[in-house]
């Protein structure tokens, strides 16, 4: 056997011994890590299955509660919704709380419904659900005409950044109308009507509101004022006289005669019939949209 073969065999033995030593030293850790990974995957899959199963059950309970809420047994509906809230699976508890507040409003318990919406807004981390709860609470306060209470809830939503801005503007405008602040109501309605993202249904309601305000003597909206603006009449007495030359003869004075002045008043009189289209004044408040 040559020295080269002996060196090769010794090198292989050393490598084998080194590998056995490494395995004895780190093998248990490798096996433990593999077992931990398998267990983590199994637990996650089991948790997902359990959550899905409970969410499906909560879904069935929630829709059963909605059917009861659409009926006449309010107590049974509330009990079913309470069960969904107690189960606390998925997003159904939040939906159940919104439905419970709507049931209170339906039964005429306005103060309790407003308190329920306020509680939802106070404990809701989701920005959009919180704003929705505030707008629903404000809608219930419209008939009371308490502008301060409504502004306390939705005053920060009427800006251009909130997706609920037009609903907030409508509720605030109706509240101001109820309180007698017709100019403030018109401004709120115009802000919503001028928003390019306002829905067609909202625009239809705003048209009715603004027409009612115009009938009650509030200044017309900007678009209507521009359409009915009186044209400018030029006073002939202040106009520069014009001269016309015929051939080589003297210039002819074409200044209108004094008796022609009344004819210039015709444009101003033509604008008057447009105001007859304004509907008669009504003392009824605009109907607030259903929640």
UniProtKB/TrEMBL annotation:
Residues 256-281 have a biased composition (Low complexity). The chain crosses the membrane at residues 26-43. InterPro entries: SecYEG/CpoB_TPR. Residues 21-210 form the Ancillary SecYEG translocon subunit/Cell division coordinator CpoB TPR domain. Keywords: Membrane, Transmembrane, Transmembrane helix. Residues 239-291 are annotated as: Disordered. Pfam families: TPR_21. This is Ancillary SecYEG translocon subunit/Cell division coordinator CpoB TPR domain-containing protein.
């Amino acid at each position: 056997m040559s020295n080269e073969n002996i060196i090769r065999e010794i090198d292989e033995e050393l490598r084998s011994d080194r590998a056995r030593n490494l395995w004895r030293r780190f093998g248990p850790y490798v096996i433990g890590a593999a077992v931990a990974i398998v267990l983590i995957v199994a637990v996650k899959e089991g948790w997902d299955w359990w959550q899905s199963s409970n969410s499906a059950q909560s879904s069935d309970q929630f829709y059963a509660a909605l059917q009861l809420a659409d009926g006449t047994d309010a107590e049974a509906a509330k009990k079913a919704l309470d069960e969904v809230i107690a189960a606390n699976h998925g997003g159904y508890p939040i939906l159940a709380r919104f439905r419970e507040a709507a049931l209170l409003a339906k039964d005429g318990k306005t103060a309790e419904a407003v308190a329920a919406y306020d509680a939802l807004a106070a404990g809701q981390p989701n920005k959009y659900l919180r704003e929705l709860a505030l707008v629903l609470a404000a809608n219930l306060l419209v008939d009371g005409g308490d502008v301060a209470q409504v502004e306390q809830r939705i005053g920060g939503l009427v800006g251009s950044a909130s997706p609920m801005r037009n609903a907030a503007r409508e509720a605030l405008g109706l509240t101001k109308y109820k309180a007698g602040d017709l100019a403030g109501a018109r401004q709120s309605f115009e802000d919503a009507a001028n928003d390019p993202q306002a829905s067609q249904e909202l625009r239809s309601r705003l048209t009715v509101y603004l027409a009612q305000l115009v009938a009650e003597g509030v200044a017309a909206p900007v678009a209507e004022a521009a359409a009915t603006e009186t044209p400018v009449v030029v006073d002939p007495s202040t106009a520069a006289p014009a001269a016309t030359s015929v051939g080589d003869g003297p210039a002819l004075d074409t200044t209108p005669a004094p008796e022609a002045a009344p004819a210039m008043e015709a444009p101003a009189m033509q604008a008057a019939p447009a105001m007859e289209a304004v509907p008669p004044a009504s003392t009824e408040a605009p109907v607030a949209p259903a929640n």
